[in-house]
Amino acid sequence: SLSETLRGEFELSGKDVKVHVVCPAFFPTNLMDGARAPETDKSVARKLMNNSGDTADSVAQNIYRGMTRGDFLILPTKAERGRWRIKRFFPNTFYRALLKAVGQRQRPK
Predict the structure, then answer these.
(1) pTM score
(2) CA angle, 68 as apex, 63 and 70 as ends, to 5°?
(3) Which of 63, 69, 79, 104 pairs as cysteine with 99 (C-beta 3.0–4.6 A)?
(4) How far apart are CA 60 and CA 73, in angstroms?
């Protein structure tokens, strides 16, 4: 909401300021090396990073392309557009699929 508000305010003001929202999924980085989190959480994040199929370079290129096109919402990782739609319109389905993908046991319904 903040980004959408800023976008609207800058467009109405006539100032040459662009607002972009970048929403990458997991991709391999060294982010977990210094993370202060339980080891189980780090393990889940590392698994998602390693299984992504993206690289820091490909993510950066996709962000740059989206910005040069003037995209407001930039989803720079491979399967993120589909995931974004599922998460937006079917949040519970997305959550269950996420748990399944990382091998976590779901709570009884």
Answers:
(1) 0.72
(2) 95
(3) 104
(4) 15
